[in-house]
C-alpha cells in the first residue's frame, strides 16, 4: 500500500530582498494510521530563481502532523421473513 501523502509549507531563512522560490517533490506519512504528532518526511526540496545560486540547502526535511480518524456511521436494515412457509419437522 502506498504511503499517505501530506501537504507541507516550506519556510527558509533567506536574506531579506533575495528572490527565489522553493518547492518539494513529495511529503508523506510513514503509515495510514490515525494519530497525533506523526512524522511527515519531505523529499525533493529544490529552489529556483534569481538568487537561488547564492544558497546551499537541504533536499530532505521532516515535520510532524496529525492524521484525524474518520467518523464511521454504522446502520442496520430490517429484513423480513415470510412466516407462511412451514418449517420442516426434525
Describe the structure.
- This protein is mainly β.
- The protein has one domain (1-90).
- Helices cover 0% and strands 30% of the residues.
- The protein is built from no helices and five strands.
- Strands 2-3-5 form a three-stranded antiparallel β-sheet, with no helix packed on it.
- It is rod-shaped and about 90 Å long.
- The two termini are 51 Å apart.
- The mean pLDDT is 91.
Summary keywords:
90 residues, mainly beta, three-stranded antiparallel β-sheet, two-stranded antiparallel sheet, 0% helix, rod-shaped
Give a quick precis of the structure.
The chain has one domain (1-90). Helices cover 0% and strands 30% of the residues.
Secondary-structure topology with pairs:
Blueprint lengths: L20 E3 L2 E4 L5 E9 L2 E3 L11 E8 L23
If you average the pLDDT, what whole number results? 91
**Low-confidence parts lasting 5 or more residues at pLDDT below 50?**
none
Largest sheet: 3 strands, antiparallel
Beta-strand level of the residues, as a percent range? 25-35%
Distance between the termini: 51 Å
Helix/sheet category: mainly beta
The neighbouring-strand order within the major sheet is: 2-3-5
**How many DSSP E strands?**
5
Amino acid at each position: 500500500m502506498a504511503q499517505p501523502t501530506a501537504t507541507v509549507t516550506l519556510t527558509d531563512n533567506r536574506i531579506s530582498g533575495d528572490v527565489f522560490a522553493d518547492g518539494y517533490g513529495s511529503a508523506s506519512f510513514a503509515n495510514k494510521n490515525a494519530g497525533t504528532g506523526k512524522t511527515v518526511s519531505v523529499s525533493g526540496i529544490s529552489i529556483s530563481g534569481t538568487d537561488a545560486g547564492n544558497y546551499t540547502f537541504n533536499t530532505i526535511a521532516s515535520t510532524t502532523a496529525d492524521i484525524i480518524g474518520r467518523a464511521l456511521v454504522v446502520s442496520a436494515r430490517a429484513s423480513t421473513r415470510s412466516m407462511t412457509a412451514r418449517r420442516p419437522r426434525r
